[in-house]
Structure formats: C-alpha cells, structure tokens
C-alpha cells in the first residue's frame, strides 16, 4: 500500500507542475545572432505596386580590419513572418537588381522556435562587400487569383515588433559561417497615391443659348452614375485599388470629375481598352443622341468631351493609369457632334412665325424651378426669361425690343391641371396671378398675353405655371422627354417667336 501511495503522489506532482517550454529561443531569429555584420537595410522599404517591395542594401565594413566579420559575406536573409499569414496561399519571388535570385524564397518553421513561428528565407544570395547599393526586392502574389487570405503586402506578411508600424519587417542578415549576423528593422514606405480620374465637360458652342452649368444636384447625379459604372468594371476585372484613397468627385461649373487610385499602373491598365470603348459609347449617350429627339434639351448647342487621365485642372491633365479621350478615340463625325434636337415631329406652334433661336434677344434659362403654389395641392413651375444676343441685331426680329407675349406647348386635354399663371418682371417684388388662358382646342397652347416687357423687365423675369402638384411634365407639356416644356416669345408683330426648351430640374432629378 505504501508503494502505491508513493507512486500516486509522484504522478500527481507531474500533472500539477507546468510543462517547460520547448522553445530554445523565444525571439526571432530563433538562433544566436548579434555579432556585427557589414550589411544592413537603412531607411525604409519602397513599394512599387503589384505586390513588389524593395530595400537598398548598405555595406559598412567594421573600422577594425581584424574584426572576425570585417570580410563576411551575405549568404541569406531571414524575415519574421506574421503567424496569421496564409503562407500556403502566398507566392514570394525575389530579385537582386532585377535579376531573380538563384534559389527561390521559401517559408519554413524554425526548429526551437515558439509554436506558430514562421520565417521567410532568401538564401544563396552570393553577396559581398562590393554589393553596396544593390536593390533587393520581393514580389508577393496569391496562388489563387483574387484570394483574400494571401499575404500580398508587408502589413499582412511581416510580424511587426511591438509598437512598430504595421508592415515593419524584422530581418536577420547572416553570412556563410552563420557567425556574423545582425537584426535589421525595415519600415514600410509607399509612394504617394497616383490618382486617375474621369472628366465630363459639356462644352458650349455658339448654338447654345446659355452654357450648361453644374449645380450640386446635377453634379451628384452625373458623378453617381459615372462612379457606379466604373466601380462595376473595376470589380469585374479584379483591379486592385490603393487602400489609402477613398474615391471622390468634384464639380466646377463646367466639368464633373470622379477620381480614385489603383495600387499600381498595371492594375489600372486592366481597364484601358474598356475605357476607350466607354468614351466612344458615352459620347452619344451623354447628349441624348439615341432618344427620339437626338438631343437632351438642356444640352442643346453643346459638345460633350470625356477624358480618362490623371488628376489635374481640366483640360491640362497629366497622364493617369487609364488614358482615354473621346475626342481622339471616337470617330471624328461622332466626337465633333453638336447636340441638335430633331424637331421634325414637333407640331408646335400652330401659328406661322420665326421660331429660330436667337431670332430676337429674348430667351429662357435651361432649368425651370419649382415653388409652392397658392394651395397645398399646387406647385409653381417657373421659366426664367433671359436677354440674349440676337443672331442678327439688324434684322426685323433682331431689332425687337419688347417681349409682347409668351406661349407654352401644353396638352389642352389636361386643362384642369393648370390652376393659374403667374408672372413677375425683373425688379417686381411679387408674382401677379392670372387665370389660365388656352388657345383653341387642338392648338395645345397656353397663352401668357399682354406682357409688354422691356429688355430690363424681361432679363430675370419669371413666367410660372401653377399646376396640380402631381402633374407629370412629360405628359402635360407633350414633349415627353426629360421633364421639359417649350416656350416661345413673341414680338408685337407676332412674326417673331423664337422657341426654347426649359426643364424642371426637380422632376428630372426625382425631386
């Protein structure tokens, strides 16, 4: 019995006592290292995109020529790897001054190291005291294209020491005898992001009554559509973006742009041919050439310029990781097309008069704006009158200096939706309301008579339709494209009646 109790106590003691660590060395490089060596990587590593990272080798022999490591070579470099790195799905290649190393880099688990330790080894380097300034690079990639668990950057590859920035690599530089060895920390540095942008510029020609100007709502709509299309293509081709840059948009009065950054020029090049095709297709789409009227009313008289390039001030743009220009890549007859509506199917106005734009000095702003009506159930849709340069100021129409009346193309079958007409010459404090006035049935004409405005009263004056708030202008105004109404301005002779479109921006952009 006594022997049984003794055996039990001994066994219990072994169970209760902590097991000793099997690791011979607790810290990288997991072997004895610390004798000075001539080799180091001073400064930072450089990232060149596409998973390539480089460091410049510095050779500084000890001042004491009798030092045992004064003439040491550099046989291998070992790097401490993040235990979370999926080394099985990570490919590493190495070059010295652009030439692949004699032996490919490899991952291994060092003997005598704590559990989970992994080291990347570059060996048989064949470097010596004459290799000062050599460029040593590694390129990281995934065995499975597009894999998210591969270690394709230094942040995921290297085990940074406590307190160091992510991506800091700890390397051991070792000679052939394994006696001369030094630990070197290399901090990451990346070149500044290289921005690539898409630019959209509606350029007015003399045929434009007023230049197209982006406001914040138009800018957001345009750039949202552009970014959606480009983001989808980036995802489709698997192009890698620079994680330091959040895509953004800008708008001046005449140029909308969307910008982002690729991780390397090679990633941007994945979209190059697609981008060239896109600017050709969008050249027509942007002006509404594929619609029944061949032109969006708010772009009449404009040419559309589209460019992929670097970040800059339009049109002086640097090259980017994508370069495409509709002016160059589209056929000449398409690149130079001017937004000109096909009005052959318009049946308005019913009267015979000169409807040519710029026939007189009276025109209209391209946007209609909405305001509350006199009742909670009504809304004012307001035209803003402009004074322009008549195309021939010496002609009978061009000499006109009075805006006698206005007429608007509307569906007279929806007369009940029009609750009133309001006018306000420039300088007046308030709107003046009138009862609705229509032409004969079938004329499809809303009349705004007896204005008799001078150019001073007309420039900035407003003519408003008070409509039921649920009215769809594509139905009420008969043009049936882009929430647009057409208005013409008559002189006293009624022989001159230039015709212009104006679009409800609230309805066009979804309020």
Automatic annotation (TrEMBL):
Signal peptide annotation: 1-23
Query: Pherophorin domain: which residues?
Result: 28-181, 349-498
Q: Which UniProt keywords apply?
A: Signal
- Give any Pfam family that matches: DUF3707
**According to the lineage, what is the superkingdom?**
Eukaryota
Q: Which InterPro entries match?
A: Pherophorin
Name of the protein: Pherophorin domain-containing protein
């Amino acid at each position: 019995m006594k022997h049984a109790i003794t055996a039990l106590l001994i066994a219990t003691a072994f169970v209760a006592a902590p097991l000793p660590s099997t690791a011979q060395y607790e810290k990288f490089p997991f072997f004895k290292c610390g004798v000075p060596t001539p080799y180091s990587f001073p400064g930072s590593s450089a990232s060149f995109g596409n998973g390539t990272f480089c460091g410049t080798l510095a050779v500084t022999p000890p001042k004491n020529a009798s030092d045992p490591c004064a003439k040491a070579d550099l046989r291998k470099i070992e790097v401490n790897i993040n235990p979370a790195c999926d080394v099985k799905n990570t490919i590493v290649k190495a070059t010295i001054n652009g030439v692949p190393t004699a032996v490919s880099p490899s991952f291994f688990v060092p003997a005598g190291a704590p559990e989970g330790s992994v080291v990347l080894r570059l060996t048989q380097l064949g470097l010596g005291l004459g290799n000062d300034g050599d460029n040593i690079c590694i390129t990281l990639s995934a065995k499975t294209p597009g894999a998210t668990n591969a270690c394709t950057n230094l942040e995921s590859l290297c085990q940074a020491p406590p307190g160091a920035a992510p991506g800091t690599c700890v390397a051991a530089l070792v000679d052939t005898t394994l006696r001369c060895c030094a630990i070197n920390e290399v901090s990451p540095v990346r070149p500044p992001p290289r921005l690539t942008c898409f630019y959209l510029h509606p350029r007015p020609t003399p045929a434009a009554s007023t230049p197209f100007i982006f406001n914040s709502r138009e800018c957001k709509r345009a750039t949202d559509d552009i970014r959606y299309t480009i983001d989808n293509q980036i995802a489709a081709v698997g192009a890698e973006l620079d994680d330091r840059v959040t895509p953004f948009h800008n708008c001046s009065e005449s140029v909308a742009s969307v910008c982002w950054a690729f991780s390397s020029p090679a990633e941007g090049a994945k979209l190059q041919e697609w981008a060239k095709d896109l600017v050709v297709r969008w050249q027509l789409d942007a002006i509404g050439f594929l619609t029944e009227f061949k032109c969006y009313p708010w772009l009449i008289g404009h040419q559309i310029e589209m460019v992929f390039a670097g970040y800059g001030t339009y049109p002086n743009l640097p090259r980017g990781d994508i370069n495409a220009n509709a002016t160059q890549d589209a056929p000449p007859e398409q690149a130079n097309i001017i937004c000109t509506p096909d009005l052959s199917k318009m049946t308005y106005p019913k009267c015979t008069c000169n409807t040519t734009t710029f026939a007189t000095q009276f025109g209209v702003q391209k946007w209609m704006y909405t305001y509350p009506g006199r009742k909670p159930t009504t809304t004012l849709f307001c035209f803003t009158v402009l004074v322009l340069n008549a195309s021939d100021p010496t002609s009978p129409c061009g000499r006109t200096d009075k805006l006698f009346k206005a007429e608007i193309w509307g569906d007279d079958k929806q007369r009940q939706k029009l609750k009133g007409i309001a006018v306000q010459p420039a300088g007046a404090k308030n709107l003046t309301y009138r009862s609705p006035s229509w032409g004969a049935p079938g004329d499809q004409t809303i009349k705004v008579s007896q204005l008799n405005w001078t150019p001073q009263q007309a420039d900035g004056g407003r003519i408003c339709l008070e409509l039921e708030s649920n009215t769809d202008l594509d139905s009420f105004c008969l043009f049936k494209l882009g929430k647009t109404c057409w208005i013409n301005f008559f002189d006293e002779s009624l022989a001159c009646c230039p015709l212009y479109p104006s679009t409800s921006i609230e309805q066009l952009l979804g309020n």
